[in-house]
C-alpha cells in the first residue's frame, strides 16, 4: 500500500497515472473555458491564452509533486498530515500566485517586492481562491484513491486469510485419520495375515480407500452423501476388525438425501469420537447410530452412541490432535452459516452430536411436486 522511493514510471501505480490524466484533463477544460470567457468578455488580447497555457503546464507539474508529497505524508498521523497540508496549500498558492504575477505584472514592467505583494494580496480575493482549490482537489483525489486501495487491500487480505484457513482446514481434515488409527489397523492386518489372508486383503483395500478419499478431499469441493457414507462404512468395518462384536453400527438414512452434497469428511470426526470415547472404553461395547433425515428445506444429521456418555473420562473430540470436533464445527459454520454448528448432548446413557444444513430442492423435482 505504501509507495516510498518510487524510482521509475513503471513503479508508479496505474491508478495514480489515470487520476493524474483525469485531473489534467479537468483543469485543461477549466483553463480553456475560463480563458475563452475572459477573452470574449473582458480582455480581447490573445496573450491571455499563452498565459493560461503556462499556468496549466505549471499546475500539471505541481500535481505530480502534490501526489508524491501526500503519499509521503501518509506515514504520519492525521494531525501532522493536516498541518503539513495546510502549509502545502499555502506554498502551492504562493507558487501559482508568483507565476501569475510574472505573467501578468512582471512582464509589463511592474517589478519589485511591493508589486509582487500587491498581486498576491489581490489573489486572496474570491477569484484567486481557485489556487487553493487546485491543491485541495488534488489531495482529495489522492485520499479517495487511497481509501479504495485500502478497501481492496482488506478484501485481498480477507481472501488470502480465507484461503489459508481453507488450507489449514484441509490439512487438519487429512490429519484427522490419526496415527493411532493407522497403527491399530496395521496391527489388525498383521494379525489377520496369519489367520485370514482374504480378510487382511479386504482391510488393506478399505484402508487404501479411506486414505485415497482423505487425500482427494478439498475444502471447497463438496461430495455427495452417498460417497461420504461409503467412506464411513470403510472406517467402521476396519474398526470392527479391532473391536469385533463390541462395535455395532446402524444407519438410518433417508434415501432422498443420498444425492445431497456435503463437505468431505464432515461425519468422520463425529463417528471417530463415538468409537474412541464412547464405545472403546466400555467393556461390553455399544452401538453407533448415524441418522440422516430431511425436514422440509433442512437436512438433519446425527451421530449417536450408547457408550459411556457423560461418564467418559476424556473430553470427547474425535481426533488425536484435539481439533477434530472444533474443526468440524467451524467448517459447518463457515460453509452453511452460524445456525449449522454442532449441537452436542451427553448423559449417562450415551452421547450424540447433530447438525442441520440447508437443502435446496432441485428445479426438476420442485416443478414435479408443484404439478402434482
> What general form does the structure show?
rod-shaped
Q: Please tell me the CATH architecture of the largest domain by its name.
A: 2-Layer Sandwich
Q: Mean of the pLDDT scores? A: 80
Question: Strands across the major sheet, in which order?
Answer: 2-4-5-7-6
> Would you identify the CATH H-level superfamily of the largest domain?
Histidine kinase-like ATPase, C-terminal domain
> How large a portion of the residues is in β-strands, by DSSP E?
5-15%
CATH fold-type name of the largest domain: Heat Shock Protein 90
Instruction: Please write the CATH class name of the largest domain.
Output: Alpha Beta
The Rg value, from CA coordinates, equals 37 Å
The N- and C-terminal alpha carbons lie at a distance of: 59 Å
Number of DSSP E strands? 7
Which bin fits the share of residues in helices?
A: 55-70%
Taking pLDDT < 50 over at least 5 consecutive residues as the criterion, the unreliable ranges are: 1-6, 317-322, 363-367
Describe this structure in words.
The chain crosses the membrane at residues 20-41, 47-70, 82-103. InterPro entries: Bact_2-comp_sensor_kinase (IPR050640), HATPase_C_sf (IPR036890), Sig_transdc_His_kin_internal (IPR010559). Keywords: Kinase, Membrane, Transferase, Transmembrane, Transmembrane helix. It comes from Dawidia cretensis. One of its GO terms (molecular function) is phosphorelay sensor kinase activity. The chain is built from 11 helices and 7 strands. A 5-stranded mixed beta sheet has the order 2-4-5-7-6, covered by helices on one side. The protein has helices spanning 14-41, 47-73, 78-104, 113-123, 130-175, 179-195, 197-216, 225-243, 268-279, 324-336, 363-371; strands at residues 223-224, 247-253, 261-262, 286-295, 298-305, 343-347, 350-358. 62% of the residues lie in helices and 12% in strands. A hairpin with a 2-residue loop joins strand 6 (343-347) and strand 7 (350-358). The radius of gyration is 37 Å and the shape is rod-shaped. The protein has 372 residues and is α+β, with helices and mostly antiparallel strands. It folds into 2 domains: 9-159, no CATH class; 176-371, 2-Layer Sandwich (Heat Shock Protein 90). Helix 3 (78-104) packs across helix 4.
